[in-house]
Write a structure and sequence with these properties.
It is built from 6 helices and 3 strands; from the N terminus they run H-H-H-E-E-H-H-H-E. It is mainly alpha-helical. The termini are far apart. The structure holds zinc ion.
């Protein structure tokens, strides 16, 4: 068994250093060993936001204050204080119930005075922008919630069809329209079926998305 603590060599017993310090490495030899290894990683870093739902893509709905009014946004798709629609440009808010009912009556009026055929042509043209004739007059627009875009012509047609079918059923039609009065996102029942809201967009901001 060797002594773990050997006595230090006597002074003056070191081998003489070569003049010029360390000898140069032989040509073509291996590179000098690295000066120690890097510290080992403490496991893998956790992936960013792993396990957390990726939500709130554009707007601040669901969490934080409303970008339009600064109040608590709430958990609905529209601000419960001002009607700002989550995920849409600041200032795009749901139309008031009064305006919605005015629009329904204006639509009927336009349908009659254009003898239906004018209304149909008009509707075909403006439906591309998420509107019907009355909505185009009043600067309103239908927004499809899953896409956060104005409704396409096809989506407008489906919405119109659902609205006609529901409207043809007594009581259900009236109840569907009155739903706007108490719904948190000011949706009529046909809006709920096709997942849409109606917003004011006089400045056509949603056409520039
Ligand atoms: Zn708000």
């Amino acid at each position: 068994m060797s002594d773990p603590n050997p006595p230090p060599p006597p002074p003056g017993d070191y081998p003489p250093q070569q003049p010029g310090g360390y000898p140069p490495p032989p040509p073509g030899g291996p590179p000098p060993p690295p000066q120690g290894y890097p510290p080992p990683q403490q496991g893998y870093p956790p992936p960013a936001a792993y396990g957390q739902p990726v939500y709130a893509p554009q707007g601040a709905y669901g969490a934080g204050p409303c970008p339009n009014c600064g109040q608590v946004f709430g958990t609905e798709r529209t601000c419960q204080n001002c009607g700002q629609v989550g995920g849409l440009p600041t200032g795009i808010r749901t139309s008031s119930a009064g305006k919605r009912f005015g629009e329904i009556f204006l639509e009927l009026l336009l349908f009659i005075v254009t003898l239906a055929i004018g209304w149909l042509i008009w509707a075909f043209i403006v439906s591309k922008n998420g509107q019907g004739p009355a909505k185009s007059v009043l600067g309103m627009r239908v927004v499809k919630l899953p896409t956060s875009r104005h409704a396409t012509r096809g989506e407008m047609f489906v919405r119109w069809l659902v609205k006609r079918i529901m409207g043809a059923i007594p009581i259900v039609g009236l109840l569907s329209a009155l739903w706007i009065l108490w719904d948190k996102n000011r949706q009529a029942l046909w809006d709920k079926v096709v997942d849409t809201v109606v917003v004011d967009d006089k400045e056509k901001r949603l056409l520039q998305q």
